[in-house]
Amino acid sequence: MKNLSPLLKTHWPQALLLLCSLVGFIDATYLTVSHYVNFHLPCVIFTGCETVTNSVYSTMAGIPVALLGSLFYLFIILAVISHLLYRHRYLPYLLVYVSFTAFLFSLYFIGLQVWVLKAICFYCVMSATLSTIIFATSVYFRFHRLP
Predict the structure, then answer these.
(1) CATH superfamily of 15-143
(2) Count of other CB atoms within 10 angstroms of residue 26
């Protein structure tokens, strides 16, 4: 167990990024599939999932927002794995920029749910939380010169 300690101390940001992006990918892919097969979402905690996912704001230029989320999370997964394997110096910078963009979109969509739609989607809140954690972890990872 002592041998794992240095590894966990130096690679925890990458592990957290992978975990959050994997959960986010599953969440966003579930929403994407439900969009295309017109599946009724079971709403947990909140009661506005159908209102949010069927609103005019659930697509951008005909593309489901959830699909864009799936692509974002997949990109984070691939970027972190690439960094772990090849140690590309530019990847921490790229992670910050991409995750910041996703964070801003999350703020926008949460604002739409609260103030415009007046309905909250559990899956969307979970995705927004994950994208926020990914952004914060990416900033930490970028500025702390970890391996």
Answers:
(1) VKOR domain (1.20.1440.130)
(2) 12
Would you list the domain boundaries of the chain? 15-143
The two tokens of residue 100 are 């910041």
- Return the pLDDT at 6: 52
Q: Where are the alpha helices (DSSP H) in 2-121?
A: 4-37, 49-53, 65-86, 91-111
Asked if 121 contacts 106 with a C-beta cutoff of 8 angstroms, the reply is no
- Predicted confidence (pLDDT) per residue in 54-94, tens digit: 999 999 999 999 999 999 999 999 999 998 888 888 888 99
Q: Please state, in angstroms and rounded to a whole number, the distance separating the CA atoms of residues 31 and 27.
A: 6
Query: Hey, how many other C-beta atoms are within 10 angstroms of the C-beta on 42?
Result: 9
**Cβ 50 vs Cβ 41: under 8 Å:** yes
Q: What is the pTM of this model?
A: 0.90
Query: In this structure, are residues 72 and 98 in contact, taking their beta carbons and an 8 Å threshold?
Result: yes
CA distance 141 to 147: 9
Angle between helical axes of 4-37 and 122-143 (0-180°, round to 10): 150
